[in-house]
Amino acid sequence: MASPLLQVRNLRVEFPTRRGTLLALDDISFDIAPGEVLGVVGESGAGKSLTGAAIIGLLEPPGRIAGGEILLAGKRIDHLPYEQMRAIRGRRIGAIFQDPLTSLNPLYTIGRQLTETILTHLPVSAEEARQRAVRLLQETGIPAAAERLEQYPHQFSGGMRQRVVIALALAAEPELIVADEPTTALDVSIQAQIISLLKRLCRQHGAAVMLVTHDMGVIAETCDRVAVMYAGRICEIGPVHEVIHHPAHPYTRGLMGSIPAMDDTRERLLQIDGAMPRLNAIPAGCAFNPRCPQAMDRCRRDRPELIDAGHTRAACWLARQEAAT
Amino acid sequence: MSAAAPLVQVDDLAKTFDVSPPWLNRVLERKSRQFVHAVDGVSFAIRKGTTLALVGESGCGKSTVARLLVGLYEPTRGRVHFDGQDTGAWKSSAANLRTLRRRMQMIFQDPYASLNPRWKVLDIVGEPLREHGLCSSDDSLRQKVGELLRSVGLATVDMEKFPHQFSGGQRQRISIARALATQPEFLVCDEPTSALDVSVQAQVLNIMKDLQREQGLTYLFISHNLAVVRHVSDQVGVMYLGRLVELADKVELFARPRHPYTRMLLAAIPDIHMSGSSRTPVQGEVPNPLSPPAGCAFHPRCPHADARCSSERPEMRQVQGVRVACHAVEEGRIAPRADDVRPGRN
């Protein structure tokens, strides 16, 4: 494998509160290769959005990186001062957020927001920036791009707004795009359009993507690899096909079984009883042990690391046992 | 569970909202009155003990149908019959209205917004019991609430807690317990699992199915998620811009979708088992409901549209046991085939 574009090493994110420090991300490690699409999936509160926020340097205080490092093309970016991080954000790492209405400024025209981004990051003239903005809007499939530059976000529909946001994220040709639930606010028919657009454009521009979503279907058709998160930790990571068809971690298995699929005929869905622990009550050992149907004594005592489990890497003592036999 | 008389029968239901600019603007700026036809001529029937699901994209009027059924909106046109009686006529008397309210209940989408944060679970679930005079004493109320909580998989002691002490899935169970308190026959569920995570969604869907089996409940299930709909429903109605475009048995609809919009919706679902391959994106977007296209509302996005589709609105017609509103299907221009929906499926 080529040298990774993004390396996250033992990342810890903490939220100091009056009642003690909450550990929101614990020992997160993964790589993204240039041009690769990595999916990050998990239920609400698992820490997937927080991982994205930590990478683009937009952790909301009091949240802070308490350990580990984040490297972009071999250089650390997690401890950069605000101004330097600002130069990277938008230029080398683009971001797409869930709600396109809140990520666009309602008081500026689309054209102004696009040209501003281009002029901030690239050494081009105002006219060139405008032409580039038109070209970007055309690429994202917005009809009559030149006229629409003069319009405001409220004059666009939800799907069109998300296209504008994608154009904005790609404006300065970043190497990595962090997309946080980019299709969650959209209808299924629009969701399919946006996903295929995002895939096509990132391939054309050679950008790697970290796609954060809770929708396993979106992951399945978009990503090369997927990381499954649970209670602030990665519980399984591997090629998409393997994680979906041969999940090694009991949580991943439960997650896959609880999704109603179009071709299953089950009367009842597989359910994982209980709910994800709150951050102030993460159990000892494996965080999943109270809900795990296969939990052993060891799971309640020792915390499993990510290890090779067949085709994927899973943080589970069962996988270790199977590997030993 | 007789197949004869449906529990709920809806005929030509319509709801129009007046979204005109204020009077002064109309006079000074010569703006005209404007109306949104949120629901326009919807008819269906639900047999006792079964589930009808309504699917469609946002703004297609599915939640408005739900609210019309439980009486949160007055219909502009059309009738709703519940257990053989016209609810419009029933509503003239307060006593009848109370009976009706007891027999049909609603579960809302957002379990964070639909529970009063300042009330204990005992008061939330107990309110319908008190309101309808179904419990004589505090003791029997507590006992009844405890039973209800246990029936949805919560503990009796939970009645002393406040909503913020529960997770989203548990809150939705409280909503279900509240809806079941009056022993209704008919439950209207407006996107009951959309705000929940998948593993929690599975818990709630399982509970809903168990309760249906045990108590013979009838559901109207509103959802935009076709996979969920396929899991819970017996009959499915597909809505587009305020109108039903297809109404069919679940098995029939998913195996042989007739209407081009239904086909598009099915093709647009991401399939977790098709790793790597892509779905066919639906072209275009839902038009503005203020100025819906003439003729068939779907014609600007439809690959099979012709001149007739853009001028004449199709009526719902019976085609091989399925009700479809489409000129192309009626004329036989598109054949009902299963395999053109999702190529390459095994």
N- to C-terminal separation of chain B? Answer: 36 Å
Q: Counting H and I runs of at least 4 residues, what is the number of helices of chain A? A: 13
Our measurement of the CA-to-CA distance between the termini of chain A, rounded to an integer number of angstroms, reads 29 Å
Low-confidence stretches of chain B: 338-346
- Gyration radius of chain B, to the nearest Å? 22 Å
Please bin the fraction of helical residues of chain A: 25-40%
Overall form of chain A? globular
The topology string of helices and strands of chain B comes to EHEEHEEHHEHHHEHEHEEHHHEEH
Strand order, sheet with most strands of chain B: 6-7-8-3-9-10-12-11
CATH topology of the domain at 6-223 in chain A: Rossmann fold
CATH architecture of the domain at 6-223 in chain A: 3-Layer(aba) Sandwich
Helix content of chain B: 25-40%
Number of helices of chain B: 13
Structural class of chain A: alpha/beta
Count of β-strands of chain A: 12
Residues in β-strands, percent of chain B: 15-25%
Tell me the total number of β-strands of chain B: 12
What pattern of helices and strands is seen along the backbone of chain A? EEEHEEHEHHHHHEHEHEEHHHEEH
CATH superfamily of the domain at 6-223 in chain A: P-loop containing nucleotide triphosphate hydrolases
Top CATH class of the domain at 6-223 in chain A:
Alpha Beta
Description:
The complex is a heterodimer of chains A (325) and B (346). Chain A has 325 residues and is an alpha/beta fold. Chain A has a domain at 6-223: P-loop containing nucleotide triphosphate hydrolases (Rossmann fold). Chain A contains 13 helices and twelve strands. In chain A, the strands form two sheets. Chain A has an eight-stranded mixed β-sheet with strand order 6-7-8-3-9-10-12-11, sandwiched between helices. Chain A is globular and about 65 Å long. The two termini of chain A are 29 Å apart. The mean pLDDT of chain A is 89. Chain B has 346 residues and is of the alpha/beta class. In chain B, the strands form two sheets. Chain B has an eight-stranded mixed β-sheet with strand order 6-7-8-3-9-10-12-11, sandwiched between helices. In chain B, helix 5 crosses helix 6 (138-151), helix 5 (121-131) runs parallel beside helix 7 (168-180) and helix 7 (168-180) runs parallel beside helix 8. Classes of the chains: A alpha/beta (325), B alpha/beta (346). The A-B interface holds A 43-44, 157, 159-160, 187-193, 195-196, 199, 214-221, 240-241, 244-245, 254-263, 267-273, 275 and B 57-58, 167-170, 197-203, 205-206, 209, 224-228, 230-231, 254, 264-266, 268-282, 285-286, 345.
